[in-house]
Amino acid sequence: MIVTRTVLKNVDHLIERLGTSISWLLPIMALLVLAIVIMRYCFSIGSVAVQELVEYLHATVFMLGISYTLKNDAHVRVDIFYRSVERLTSAYINLFGTIFFLFPLCAVIIVSSWDYVLSSWWILERSEERSGIAFVYGLKTLLLIMPLLLGLQGVVIAHREITLITKKLRHPKDEVITNNDE
Fold first, then answer.
1. Domain extents in the chain
2. Interval 55-75: pLDDT, tens
3. Which of 10, 12, 100, 104 is most buried (CB neighbours < 10 A)?
């Protein structure tokens, strides 16, 4: 159990650091968009590589930030009913969603993307534009990294919810708080 807790803490720490790190890409991306607009409309200069770099940064923020968003419970959900339920009920909902929706989704993404990413690496796929970025295969690799990180965060969430549920089953008299009280 100690190894499991250590691994789970390491996964949690990894995703926290990753989310914090990639957040620095957002101001860089905003400055690049500003530079593109100024270059294009003030100086009539265009750069395919800089435009593709903005796309790469956007994809990176989205694909690597999704597990951080899940970790911090900042994803979109129908909160009308969820926010008023007891913490134990939300633990069951989170566990159910993780097992029956998150894990299968991650598996489907990995299985359906595997050949696509491998073939891109096999040919060292480049941009279709001559002056574009020559690292398309690296960008496509995010299709495998994203569900892997999301699945790892799902394991952390499932463990947390199972721990809460089993603790409540062992000690049913303990007070159960609602999600609003946390």
1. 2-174
2. 999 999 999 999 999 999 888
3. 12
